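Running this now, will post back.
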Amino acid sequence: MIYITGDTHGDQVRFIENNLGDSSWTENDFLIICGDFGYIFRNSPLENEFLDYLETKPYTICFCDGNHENFPAIFSYPEEIWHSGRIHRIRKNVIHLMRGQVFEIEGKKIFTMGGAYSLDRGSRIPGCSYWDEELPSDEEFREAAENLKKHDFNVDCIITHTAPRKLIKKMGFYPICYETQLTDFHFQDAQLTGFLEWIMQTANYRHWYFGHFHLDDEIDSKHTAVLFKVHRLDG
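Update: finished.
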């Protein structure tokens, strides 16, 4: 069975005290986190100890990247093909789902596209608490479009960190693309949310889950913002 939840931000309580992941889950179960995994941020001994703890879980923990990630640290892990898509193998059962991939898990096609713009950049340090890789590269956009095309733009589920522009507005947030003073990175965020808007209009999918906005909300029958809730992917 496949389960989906939102940003964990390196919060160990989510897995320990709150028992993220039911005790009945087995090696046949998958938990997908919609970005801002956060357990590989300082690349410290304590983080590595917690990753070792996660490795004791019987189920598989997967995450697409958010914007609050240490990308050089994540990219240092071995890359391989897993369930038809590219990943970084963090631990035997802890997996980074790379951008623009279509994974085939439990008979379902799942498209992933991580990344987002850090609105709190002003309080962060480049290369220390935020990284430019938080936004997709042109090559990642191309690979995403090519992989969707290979599957005739038909997938069962879409997992992203941020959301398409239309959904951002529907939730009552103000898309960056409408700000008056725009930097190059603002334009890159607009490129990402615009790209997701294009996917929303072009692809056929049953459901789309995303994190980033720190709320649990059913936006409509096909789109869900996730933070703490755990959703089961049915159908």
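The chain has a mean pLDDT of 92. More later if anyone needs it.
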